[in-house]
Design brief:
By secondary structure, the chain is α/β, with parallel strands linked by helices. The chain contains 14 helices and seven strands. It binds S-adenosylmethionine (SAM).
């Protein structure tokens, strides 16, 4: 059954998002050789975003827990010695890859609100033996780091899940040092989504109902104080890969034919770059 929500119900949405990703983390930690994966990367395009050799250097559970829609670590052009923050770090894949890229003189923080994801990420960190990493518990709307303390903010398929995206972008700007980079993979939609999708709790938690249009993303980044804003579409999703395939095991939304027709060709993965002016 589809559960509908008033979209003003921010706490309901946050709880639903937390429950969905707690389930996803458990489906990875409880994985046995015979069990099938659930609530993991919905589309092969996501897996292809990473370099196989780079992935081979990480624990398998970090790779299996990957739920992103791109690879911000590759596109952010990280340099040795830099400090990176990943908003909504999940099982830690992008934090661990960032830590390797910035090297021992740099540092990578991951921030997430879901305890099960934080536990999984810390387990993956310990298994990989990477030391220049810390996972923080908290909300991307209230980042628990001082002003100007990071060089690069990355994020992979998370900002669309927030009910207060203006606040997330203001916080990203605040923690960046002057001249710092914002390099994020996220879902973008073309135009207004049908009411039936917008008010569908599961469609929000699977990264569709809360997604911004390109125009709105640009406007919000600009209003938060960012410059050099660039949005590049990297992939068009088949709505079925985001909806129906996740419906059975992780409570994703199911979709009727009318919704499918309305969404076809209108859900994208994008790479979003911006800069806090110097
Ligand atoms: C789609 S998953 C992406 C995880 C990771 N970035 C990746 O690429 O695998 C979304 C993650 O963001 C976290 N999250 C969602 N909303 C959040 C918020 N408002 N504050 C902190 N974490 C949040 C969830 O707990 C979950 O781990």
């Amino acid at each position: 059954m589809v559960s509908h929500i008033p979209l003003s119900a921010g706490e309901n949405l946050r709880d639903e998002v937390r429950r969905r990703y707690a389930r996803s983390a458990r489906s990875v930690t409880e994985l046995t050789p015979d069990s099938s994966r659930c609530c993991t990367t919905p589309d092969p395009a996501t897996a292809d975003a990473y370099d196989a050799i780079e992935l081979g250097s990480l624990p398998q559970t970090a790779v299996l827990a990957s739920l992103g829609c791109g690879n911000p670590t590759a596109l952010a052009e990280l340099n040795p010695g830099e400090t990176v923050l990943d908003l909504g770090s999940g099982g830690g894949i992008d934090v661990l890859l960032s830590a390797k890229r910035v090297g021992p003189s740099g540092f990578a923080y991951g921030l997430d609100m879901t305890d099960e994801m934080l536990d999984l990420a810390e387990r993956n960190r310990a298994e990989s033996g990477i030391e220049n990493v810390q996972f923080l518990r908290g909300h991307i709307e209230e980042i628990p780091l001082p002003c100007g303390s990071v060089d690069v903010v990355i994020s992979n398929c998370v900002i669309n899940l927030s009910t207060d995206k203006d606040q997330v972008l203001r916080e990203a700007w605040r923690v960046l040092a002057p001249g710092g980079r914002f390099a994020v993979s996220d879902i973008i939609v073309d135009g207004r989504l049908p009411e039936s999708i917008q008010s569908n709790l599961a469609a929000w938690s699977c990264c569709v109902a809360g997604a911004l249009t390109e125009e709105s993303y640009r406007e919000k980044l600009h209003d938060a104080g960012f410059s050099d804003i660039d949005i590049e579409i990297t992939h068009t999703y088949d709505p079925k890969s985001l909806f129906t395939e996740s419906a059975d095991c992780c409570g994703g939304p199911s979709m009727n034919d009318a919704d499918y027709e309305a969404l076809k060709g209108r859900i994208y993965a994008a790479f979003i770059r911006a800069r806090r002016p110097s």
